[in-house]
């Protein structure tokens, strides 16, 4: 018997004015972790949505599970065939525990409309045990650690009420995980593989892909470039496969320029206090990239929004040459030249209904405003320039933002931040969902901006971002700055050690952080 569990033959998907998949063939074996990799917009999400039944593929596309063809574009058929999905946002109701979250999608045990709670809870405990992560099944999902939330979503996907789960698709499963919890999720995946579950693993994190996947398939422009064994492959080779040309390693030291002690800051913030942050002081100097490190819940994300007036905060903010202010609104911050780039998953990152050009134009760059009005023609021209610089695909300024792939949305959000010629650029998780090529372009753009004198503040959970961009890093733990790393001290090991300085990070988690990468 063939050990092919899932077979796709000639799968194509054409959207109006866009062919997202062209004749993709793919075979996933029983009990293997099979990674799906490719640049932003290469068709990974579309392929997953075809498998889940969300998209009906073009005629002639064929999908088989264990040799049995399924009717693609039919969610119930996909579920019955054993295809299961854990999407990036996990889709959990934060107020409910694992027991109810599983019940909401898989159904509750019981008869005649009455829930047999004892049987249902037993079933959920059994599912959690399969995943191998111990969780109080009544604890609201919003109060679980990130990896526990992932485990609940995986357990829910593995419920067999609607058929035996055969293939589990994990879409960027580590995107929301702090470094300390990644290893734990990898262990969960390895255990599921041992039990014969096939896993399709979608990720831009090349180290993770090579660490966990047995084989990988590369998509480019909606076509499969082939399937490869991961054994013996290194990150450089994989990056080249994905991008189609050698990708130079991100050099770090070259860009560092120590800030003179006496240099006066462009922006100073004192006593920044929010629900999470406690009297944070910081300043950033001309030509400097200041990093802010911290795990989820440390106040890192709040800091970015508070600086740009997008979150209620108490603070004294001083821009060079201006009197200090006590409160900042988005409008005030923008007026002072502070631009905020949010991660594309944030609801305020962009206006989904508007086009790429209109979103870029929201920054009202001087080049597109004429006597107070936006010139749509200039807006499009400027958008075209940025589309080319950041390699946004498709390269159409009139494209609706909501129809872009995740990574391309992130590039547009970044373009909008850069285009308004900010005095200080504040970035929150700037590389979320972007591919290896775009990551390098973003690092380069931020450094180039610094080289012209304009400082940035980069808040990120991704240690590569901080090592790749920052001249200096403040480390947040429990809403307070606990350490400052400068110049050569900004290393992955240095950051992990600093993040561990307070006991709020459990010892077990610290041990994992060290061995993670
Ligand atoms: N509903 C849609 N209508 C029109 N075009 C779409 C739609 N969904 C996706 N596309 C287009 O299909 C192409 C493939 O997008 P897809 O989201 O599958 O890429 P991806 O590989 O998942 O990218 P990323 O890594 O950025 O998430 C893109 O050009 C995208 O703009």
From TrEMBL:
Cite a single GO MF annotation: ATP binding
Matching entries from InterPro entries are given as:
AAA+_ATPase, ABC_carbohydrate_import_ATPase, ABC_transporter-like_ATP-bd, ABC_transporter-like_CS, P-loop_NTPase
Going by the UniProt record, its keywords in alphabetical order are: ATP-binding, Nucleotide-binding, Repeat, Transport
User: Ranges for the ABC transporter domain?
Assistant: 6-246, 254-503
Check the record and name the PROSITE patterns matching this protein.
Answer: ABC_TRANSPORTER_1, ABC_TRANSPORTER_2
Report what the protein is called.
Answer: Ribose transport system ATP-binding protein
Q: From which source organism is this entry?
A: Nocardioides kongjuensis
